[in-house]
Amino acid sequence: MSSEFRYVGQPVKRFDVDKVYGGALFASDIELPGMLWIKLVSAPYSHARIKRIDCSEALKIPGVVAVFTGEDFPYKVGIYAADRDVLARGKVLYYGHPIAAVVAESLDIAEKAAETIDAEFEPLPAVLSIEEALSPRAPVIHERLGEYRRASFINPVPGTNIANRVKLRKGDAQKAMEDVDVVVEETYRSDPQSHAYMETWAGAATIRSDGTVEVWSSHQSPFAVRNLLAMSLGLPVSKIVVHHLYTGGGFGGKAGLLLEHIPVLISMKLGGRPVFLQLNREENFYYMAQKPGFLFKMKTGATKDGKLVFHIGEYYLDAGAYADYTVNVIRSSTFMATGPYEIPHIHVDGYAVYTNKVPTTAFRGFGILELTASFEQQMDILAEKLGIDPIEFRLKNALKPGVSITPTQEVLAEDAGDPAGVIRRAAELIGYHIPPQRSEEPWKVRGKGIAAAWKGPVQPPNAASSAIVKLNEDGSVDVLVGTGEFGQGTIIALAQIVAEELGIPVEKVRISPYRSTDLVPYTWQTVGSRGLYSDGQALIRALQDLKDQIKEVAARAFNVFKDEVEIRDGKACVVGKHSECIPLERLALGYTFPSGETIHGPIIGRGSHVPSGTTYLDPETGKGNPKPFVTFVAGGVEVEVDLVTMQVRVLKAVLVTDARIINPGLAEGQAYGGILMGIGLALKEAIGFDEIGALRNPSFLEYRLPRVEDMPVEMIFESLNVPQRNAPYGAKGIGELTALPWQAAIANAIYRAIGVRVKEYPITPERLLKAVKEQRPDILTELRKIMVGV
Amino acid sequence: MSLILRTTLPDFDYLLPSSLDELLALKAKYGERAAVIAGGTVLLNLIRLGFRYDYVIDIKGVRELSAIEYREGKGLVIGAAVTLRDLENNEVVRDKYRVLWDAVRQIGDFHLRNRATIGGNICNPTLQADTIAPLAVLGASIEISSMRGSRRVAIWELVKEGGGLLLDPDEILTRIYIPEPPKGSRGAYFKVWWIAGIAALAANIDNPRERIVRIAYSFAPSPKLVEGVERIFRQEKPLKVLIGDAINYIKTIVTPPSDARASREYREHLVEFGTAYLLRKLLGVEV
Ligand SMILES: Cc1cc2nc3c(=O)[nH]c(=O)nc-3n(C[C@H](O)[C@H](O)[C@H](O)COP(=O)(O)OP(=O)(O)OC[C@H]3O[C@@H](n4cnc5c(N)ncnc54)[C@H](O)[C@@H]3O)c2cc1C
């Protein structure tokens, strides 16, 4: 960004480095006087009726305070559909479903007692895939689906396993099928995957003597936890305080309410005693929700000249036993339907489908990962069939701000960004049209690929934020915002905005990473790449309010009109007069005249924000404006396929976004993290299930995360810096965006390297070998000739 | 029946003998009720997740089991409690026992290798144990000791056909003996995660009549030295041709398993092309 700013646009260093030396406080660090430990006991069946749970032995063990089972807590929790029992009631819905909670004086005792709990089950037929779940003969997992409390825009189909059904209709796709020259029909899939954040979930709760429920937990959005606790347990918001500490990563997996209701309800049962639940890694895989697996069917048509005409989709997410955010994630995939391209005729049906597997939830990208992983392969396949260069094909169909009609039938906003620009630049940076250098080892083959995406926050039209700014007596500033800090660095970017607006050094701005819902102003949630955009706007309003008060006080001190006062370099000055300035510290608590008379008192600014112009969507067609902004990205990769191991290595990755950037250092950090995460999702990570639905790999020993050696040798991150209207310094979110292009870009690059297309993620060596054998057996024959000699 | 995923360890008595006699006496006394712990990188997780022992006997207190001794012409003696990191840092291992060194440095990461021991690796064939195949091509034998005395068996005999160790309940793996490797020998290890490991050793490459080529596969649960490969390489044909012959032979002998980590088909691919890659690298054959 231009150098007209001193802080905004600069790579200001993170000041929250207490994480590095171990000083940062996480929920796992919470220790309350007299605290008891909770241990969950779960079921080794995917789908079964609970016949009996015998806790008598456990209760005899010294140090055990209580054991609870499902019937003790007759509540349903869930954000958009209250489909989750606190502990299983009546039946268990997945392998690892918690059925009991032991409470004891130490974790050790709780675990020993847990092992004595004897439960008996009557197994039921289990549903372990999307296809099985949709079969008319499938057992119905949620028999009372129709009775669940749910948001107005969620449409479950009672009597089936469909947790939500979403429709998008634009133009007439059926009819348009007649007007095309080329049609591509494909199916894309992925295994469920894991957020694999570093900090496993932990939460503590106690009830104060005045009845206030106090919660400390590992989450993204403190106000969402408060709201959902209130809604699910029937408590007044006024009786809940949620404390947000550092959170060790979330990636969507800690959005909303996690397991907070368990310690809260247990504490309520035990007269308010503090209780604590901390998951180990295996438990985190079973008890926390994961990223759903998907099955996206697509049929897309274009004319000879390369114009996209229609797209028909059936998008399915494997929601697992509880759908949590997944019912809304499928809306996101469906409404963004076709990526950053304009297609006149679109017909997409989206489904979130219950299965007897681990629960699922939001994941960085919120449905757009799945969409991009699928649709961007579809684009390459179409381009090839048309005989058109994939970049040219994309550019030809890219959305045009101010002109194009989006899948939800709105004109794309004039200031939406630069869809074509990011594609063009990414192609340039990866050298898409320059053949890759050959490897010296003939069994290693290289190729380049590209993918593009668009994404905006998926939020209700009234998703609000607010901010408070306090001027301190030394001219420093304390900022109160509600957004959660879990690694993104939003608080640093917000501090830069404050420093810029007041002309004070950024070191004089304090935004604590710790907050409590009773002490900071409201923000809806920290999700969807909206933190900086939404809280940033509230903050700018708060700063205007603050500055307005400063000017008012200074005007009286100078005896001039308010509009004759300006704020620069941490001082309030009379416009045009360098000598007449009062430093902010002398105004912070009000201004004291030489006589001692004091005016105004402490200066505090406040500001609110709610997006304008977003609407609910038509349930039959999806028509409406779901997003306050969208960001466009494109990613290019060069990969090397090792035909000996069938492992794929990303040699180079380039990422281009159109967003304005407040802090290039933080943005680059997001980009590198997003690239590595994308590589993991593309090539390595899969949650595996055995025949009975137990997890095969609930640990980092066998859940294969990308490692440092998987990092591309070269990474480039660039921003086109297109300003967004009504945004803090024109900035919009990029957090999720940086992870979106990689699955498809890598798949496309593999195809361009060896002519083999893998439509199932992750593209493991195993899957790649199978695809090579099916699609290009000649490659192995040739390899055999040069390496084995026969 | 229920599922409990523990964080804490269940109770057991921890014993730390300081001499070999004491160690063997304890193992004799407690037999299967006792587990031997070396680095603990496997054992503690197994115990946390469900294995139960009344006693855990630490072998790290026995000094002599942490020694590496090399005598020119005689070979190398490695104590069972020697850490992988110590092996990696040992110059003799690096220079003379290259195939072992190459395998060791590919195990886990630094943190792990600082704790994990070679004895623990060998005695843990449920995962792929990456040191067994290299030891096999080096012709290593292991010393198994108990109060009843010591016996020495070839490394590839340790794992019984179909899994399970040769050790009796009172026995402990105490030392690994590796003879002086053939003069001028080279070695390399090829590995794909816990899916396959291939160890190869070669010497006298230019002289067919004295040429030595050995290959072993470390598939869990039963690693294998492929006998007969050596014979193939003694023929007077171009190396390139011999590699092809060897691989075709190996493909008839090695039947890799199928498990949760990989299919048999994928492992077969690695047997064919991984071996080709490794042999070409080792024998200096250009593609
Ligand atoms: C993150 C991670 C990565 C890993 N990566 C690899 C890898 O790449 N390759 C690989 O091969 N392994 C790997 N392992 C497995 C393991 O760490 C190694 O096999 C290691 O060498 C085991 O040694 P240890 O001393 O820790 O064994 P321990 O855990 O102490 O013991 C392992 C088993 O052997 C028995 N045992 C140990 N010593 C003796 C003895 N002297 N006599 C009789 N029985 C004995 C124990 O009772 C136990 O059953 C990994 C483990 C982890 C946690």
Overview of this structure, please?
- The complex is a heterodimer of chains A (790) and B (287).
- Chain A is an alpha+beta fold and 790 residues long.
- Chain A has three domains: 18-22 and 460-609, Aldehyde Oxidoreductase, domain 4 (2-Layer Sandwich); 31-124, Aldehyde Oxidoreductase, domain 3; 293-459 and 616-784, Aldehyde Oxidoreductase, domain 4.
- In chain A, 25% of the residues lie in helices and 25% in strands.
- An eight-stranded mixed beta sheet of chain A has the order 3-7-1-14-11-12-13-22. In chain A, strands 9-17-16-15-10-32 form a six-stranded mixed beta sheet.
- In chain A, helix 8 packs parallel to helix 9 (368-386), helix 12 (490-502) runs parallel beside helix 13 and helix 14 crosses helix 15.
- The longest helix of chain A is centred in the C-terminal third of the chain and has 28 residues, at 531-558.
- The mean pLDDT of chain A is 96.
- Chain B is α+β, with helices and mostly antiparallel strands and 287 residues long.
- Chain B has a five-stranded antiparallel beta sheet with strand order 4-5-8-6-7. In chain B, strands 9-10-11-12 form a four-stranded antiparallel beta sheet, with helices on both faces. A three-stranded parallel beta sheet of chain B has the order 1-3-2, with helices on one face.
